[in-house]
Give the backbone structure.
Amino acid sequence: MQTIDTANKRRLLSVLSHAAIFFSWTFASVLVPLAILFVSDDAVVKNNAKESINFHFSAWLIGGLVFLLLSPLHLITFGLTIPLFAGLGGLWVLLMTVLAVLHALSKPDEPYRYPFIFHIL
């Protein structure tokens, strides 16, 4: 049986792992779940940190691939499609992250699995 402090610590570290992408849109945001992965000894927190790292890598990879594949379209439209696809990508990241945070808050004993991402770790 876990204590309230343990549950709250698990909840906080899991939420921090998933919400780290809101701290920065740069590569620095992956450092938070990476640090949590190495510091925590809780299996659920470690799984949430790994899943957050996988989500970061997937978002960067999918965003880069979409940009490269649509670069001819960007040339034709003089770059007007870039804000559209960046906005759609941002909404996807926002939605997936909010779902992960809500799951970590409501079910702290279960690690969250993002749908539609690459699971590298």
Q: What stands out?
A: The longest helix spans residues 43-69.
